[in-house]
Write a structure and sequence with these properties.
Helix content of chain B: over 70%
CATH class of chain A: Mainly Alpha
Largest interface: A-B, 17 and 21 residues
Oligomer: heterodimer
Largest sheet of chain B: none
CATH architecture of chain A: Orthogonal Bundle
Number of helices of chain A: 4
Largest sheet of chain A: 3 strands, antiparallel
Number of domains of chain A: 1
Radius of gyration of chain A: 17 Å
Shape of chain A: elongated
Structural class of chain A: alpha+beta
Number of strands of chain B: 0
Strand content of chain B: under 5%
Order of helices and strands of chain B: HHHHHHHH
Chain lengths: ~110, ~200
């Protein structure tokens, strides 16, 4: 897959992984990896970037005697997911046109 | 490699970044390793699953602004000896002026590229303004003096000129976008040179 495209899709996948409730780093990786291969070193900059642009918020909470960071989707993050599905509806329409069974010119 | 070794090496590769950035990165990786251990892996397995500290550091640095990256990676591998420092100081007028010369030349080229963009905007903007002015002011003046043919000519010429101006401004926008893109790509390229050198 094109590297820029994968980068954009990973942002979306991370937002999708927390859209129904907050989650933490390792859980996010487990949730996403059936769909896109993602490593810790890829996830960390994405989380920082999404936090920096206000698409998610972070809080620390104690877990088994240590601190764990929980990521929560922000309203702007939900908007991003909505516009993503809208864009992909258009792209799917083009995909269907491109891959349609050839029955013209009969 | 165990957890402490991984974190120690990662800290070393990020040294030079602001302390807060380093601590946040280390906290993240510490949490990731602990979560994998809690999930049933041994410490060594957990660290192996995370990848190498070099890769982790490279990804973190790629997201940082260029000045931070340069500061974090452009540090000598060993302490310079007194003689070396003295030599660097004595020869500073030579390499310093060459460095300043090269940097100013690069800066000049970059400013030159942008001035072409500004010139494009100015030229097409002038075409647009003068075209509109001719159509709006010259044509009525011709009509008042009874030169109807000339008035129609002035309107037509003014509109053509304005159209060229508008098209030209759209073209200039494209050029400006291209220059911004080139700037970004160059910054990215310089970053990856520094990050590779840091490994």
């Amino acid at each position: 897959m094109d590297i820029q495209m994968k980068r954009g899709l990973l942002d979306i996948c991370v937002l999708a992984a927390i859209k129904d409730g907050e989650s933490y780093g390792y859980q996010i990786i487990k949730d996403i990896s059936p769909y896109v291969a993602v490593s810790e070193s890829t996830l960390y900059p994405i989380l920082r970037r999404l936090e920096g642009s206000g698409l998610l918020t972070v809080r620390s909470a104690e877990h088994n005697g240590r601190l764990r960071k929980y990521y929560c989707i922000a309203p702007a993050g939900k908007e991003r997911l909505d516009s993503f599905s809208q864009e992909w509806k258009e792209i799917m329409a083009i995909y269907n046109f491109v891959t349609r069974e050839g029955k013209a010119h009969e | 490699m165990n957890k402490e070794q991984f974190l120690f090496e990662l800290r070393g590769r990020l040294a030079g970044l602001p302390l807060e950035d380093i601590e946040r990165s280390l906290d993240f990786y510490r949490e990731m390793i602990d979560d994998r251990i809690e999930d049933g892996m041994t410490e060594d397995e957990a660290v192996a699953a995370i990848g190498t500290p070099a890769d982790a550091a490279a990804q973190i640095l790629m997201e940082m602004p260029l000045p931070k990256v340069v500061k974090a990676t452009a540090k000598p591998k060993r302490k310079l000896s007194g003689a070396e420092i003295a030599l660097l100081c004595i020869t500073a007028p030579i390499w310093g002026s060459i460095l300043i010369g090269v940097l100013s030349a690069l800066f000049g080229i970059y400013v030159g590229i942008w001035s072409v963009v500004i010139a494009l905007y100015a030229a097409f903007g002038a075409a647009l303004v003068s075209g509109v002015a001719v159509a709006l002011f010259a044509a009525p003046a011709f009509i008042m003096q009874g030169f109807f043919g000339e008035a129609i000519f002035a309107i037509g010429a003014g509109l053509v000129c304005a159209a060229i101006g508008i098209l030209g401004i759209m073209f200039s926008n494209l050029v400006a976008k291209g220059v911004v893109w080139l700037t970004k790509m160059t910054a990215k390229g310089i970053k990856s040179i520094f990050i590779k050198r840091g490994e």
